[in-house]
Amino acid sequence: MRRLLATVVLSLTMLGAAAAPPAFVAADVPEARLAGEGEYTWFGMRIYRAQLWVGPQGYQGAASATAPFVLELRYARALDGKKIAEASYEQMQKIGAGTPEQRLAWLSTMQRIFPDVKEGQRIAGAYRAGIAPGVRFYLDGKVLADVSDGDFARAFFAIWLSPESTAPKLRAALLQSAAPLP
Predict the structure, then answer these.
(1) Chain CA centroid to CA 51, Å
(2) 0.85 surpassed by pTM
(3) From CA 41, how far away is CA 107, in angstroms rounded?
């Protein structure tokens, strides 16, 4: 009986912890809930764990004027910020986001913003819905930068969330419970 009670308490604790968004997520996405999560690996090496947080309106795409969301990456290894920017640029190119000129400008922006990361650190992007969409970047819950460019925001999040994503299994895992609430 004691073991059963401990298991129930542990399970409830884990459910509660999984359901509560980080403070910075709650600030950007009212009534945030975890829509999905998954891992990104490259040649068998774990690179990061991704989580997608959405509000009651769910994920409606990075062109939505009313549905903000946050995508957070927890890195499994140390990576150079310039390499993160270059990999993001390459993914934007592969999925056909933006023009070549836009992608070069976005690369410059990302190289300026993205820091080197250590194992366990988190970079998050908050999609800012509204009249002037954009993205706010965070490092371990602290604001890194704001980019007020809707085209950039759509291209950046398309890396993971577009049907053209080069990581379709991760995309499916992130969008698993991203539908609007009834």
Answers:
(1) 6
(2) yes
(3) 22
